[in-house]
Design goal:
- This protein is an alpha/beta fold and 390 residues long.
- It folds into two domains: 2-170, 2-Layer Sandwich (VC0802-like), CATH 3.30.2130.30; 180-388, HUPs (Rossmann fold).
- The chain contains 14 helices and 15 strands.
- The protein has helices at 19-34, 60-67, 86-96, 98-103, 122-136, 190-200, 218-235, 246-255, 261-280, 299-306, 322-331, 335-338, 360-367, 372-381; strands spanning 4-9, 40-45, 48-53, 73-82, 106-113, 141-142, 149-155, 160-163, 167-171, 180-184, 204-211, 238-244, 285-286, 313-314, 384-388.
- The strands form two sheets. Strands 1, 2, 3, 4, 5, 6, 7, 8 and 9 form a nine-stranded mixed β-sheet that branches.
- Helix 6 links the parallel strand 10 and strand 11.
- Helix 3 crosses helix 5, helix 6 packs parallel to helix 7 (218-235) and helix 8 (246-255) runs antiparallel to helix 9.
- The radius of gyration is 26 Å and the shape is elongated.
- The chain binds adenosine-5'-triphosphate (ATP) and magnesium ion.
- Adenosine-5'-triphosphate (ATP) binds at residues 184-186, 188-191, 208-210, 287-289, 293-294, 296, 344-346.
Length: 390
């Protein structure tokens, strides 16, 4: 008999009519994510997803850690399997939960029976195991109202399972349940976090990177690929779109006022992102902008930036402090890669005095010097697409 992993579904449980749909997405995501760790049978009963290893080669620790990063799951526990016999269940609980029982001041037992032919009711079983456990661990008192530790017993068709205190899952909604977005992914700290936050709300993401070779190096591109790879633990597999941006930047530098360089460049990013979005059925553009962080992230600049597109622009970190963004970046393990010192295309040709409060009319006037459509099409037609897997 093999241990299993139990996953608790999060808020999709509350979604009424859409619930089945969301659950299918979640199960699909779990199956894909755990495939790397062995052959598992994965299915849902009520709000719990059961992950059962099919052979002894399964990497249970790996699967357990991976499951904690799947959006839509709020808690993850590992359950020990044993024979469907009350004394076998007690012995398993005694051994498997010894540390937890010794560390807790109070506990209770909660039993569930999927197999109704089991000769005790749930209440009888809980009382029986609870009594034996309190004899075995005399420092831990039974408290059925507010216990520190809850011991769970489940009688399923082919075995009984014992588990306690789950570890928290990442929460959110299953990737894909709420549609698709494009997410502008630079090599910095903020945009991996904003990409993660958007995915957490159940969207699947197409990351887009603007690349200005040779002003930015091959290493800068590798860094973005690495960030995308780290994000797949949360976002699932993705197709990274690398947009050649050099010609656009040179054109702006040569033909537009220096203090408007950044804002005009950002409007190009938006136009190209929207074109990618339209081609892929994406309904919004996500960026890592944060209010007041730099000159191009004033409300005026953000307003002018998004004026040239029709899709909503979602900025998950817009109201977070840098320290809060860094905290998330560390948690999701993108931080160390983000701080590698390679140039981003935004730092090439940075104006000495960028306009913090650009006026739309002057920007549109300055853009008249450029072949907007031609430049957008040229960049779009030369996109490099890279499949990103875990
Ligand atoms: P980050 O830490 O994400 O690089 P930032 O604070 O450096 O953000 P900016 O460089 O002004 O801010 O960019 C703001 C946002 O624009 C980024 O968060 C990202 O979403 C997008 N962006 C900037 N540069 C690029 C790029 N080269 N490719 C794709 N998106 C970019
Ligand atoms: Mg940046």
């Amino acid at each position: 008999m093999r241990d299993i992993i139990l996953l608790k579904q999060g808020e999709i449980v509350l979604k009424g009519l859409n619930r089945k749909n969301f659950e299918m997405k979640l199960l699909g995501n779990i199956r894909r994510r755990l495939k790397n760790f062995g052959d598992f049978n994965i299915y849902a009963v009520q709000s719990t997803v059961y992950v059962e290893p099919q052979d002894d080669d399964c990497d249970m620790d790996g699967a357990f850690e991976a499951a904690k990063k799947i959006f839509g799951i709020v808690a993850v526990s590992r359950a020990a399997a044993c024979e469907k016999d009350k004394d076998a269940i007690f012995n398993t609980a005694k051994m498997y939960l010894a540390d937890a029982m010794m560390g807790a001041r109070s506990f209770k037992v909660e039993s569930k029976r999927a197999d109704k032919s089991f000769p005790m009711t749930s209440i009888q079983l809980s009382q029986y195991i609870g009594g034996l456990l309190s004899e075995e661990f005399p420092n831990t008192a039974v408290d059925v109202h507010d216990p520190e530790l809850t011991v769970h017993i489940e009688i399923r068709d082919y075995a009984a399972f014992v588990h306690c205190a789950p570890e928290p899952g990442v929460g959110g909604m299953p990737v894909g349940a709420n549609g698709r977005v494009v997410s502008l992914l630079s090599g910095g700290i903020d945009s991996p976090v904003s990409t993660y936050m958007a995915a957490k709300r159940g969207v699947s993401v197409i990351p887009v990177h603007f690349f200005s070779f040779p002003y930015t190096s091959e290493q800068a591109k590798q860094k973005v690929i690495e960030l995308a790879e780290i994000l797949t633990a949360y976002c699932g597999r993705m197709m990274l779109e690398i947009v050649p941006f050099t010609h656009i930047q040179e054109e702006i530098r040569d033909k537009c006022p220096e203090e408007l360089f950044t804002i005009i460049m950002r409007r190009f990013m938006m136009r190209i992102a929207e074109k990618i979005a339209d081609a892929n059925g994406c309904k919004a553009i996500v960026t890592g902008e944060s209010l007041g962080q730099v000159a191009s992230q004033t409300m005026e600049a953000m307003g002018v930036t998004e004026e040239c597109v029709n899709l909503p622009v979602i900025r998950p970190v817009v109201c977070l402090d840098k320290t809060e963004i860094v905290e998330i970046a560390r948690k999701i393990e993108t931080f160390d890669t983000s701080i590698l010192p390679y140039e981003d295309c935004c730092t090439v040709f940075t104006p000495r005095h960028p306009r913090t409060k650009p006026r739309l009319e002057e920007v549109i006037e300055a853009e008249r010097a450029l072949d907007l459509q031609g430049l957008v099409d040229e960049a779009y037609n030369n996109i490099e697409r890279i499949r990103i897997r875990q």
